[in-house]
Fold:
Amino acid sequence: MGAFGLCLSLFLIEYRSVFIRDKKSRKNNKAFYGKRWKISLASVILSGMLAAISVVLVIVLIQNN
Structure:
């Protein structure tokens, strides 16, 4: 869960730098920024899930030995 929290905070930093920085160009390129937001969110969710799965696997492997 800590890794997912880290990924989420990295996503929020990227959101802030990309979307809030230049509102005018965001209005002109809504399609590009909309796709970028979805890709960023998907990458955060996937990396958080992979981190959670790997943590669970490590715990299971440690307990089995």
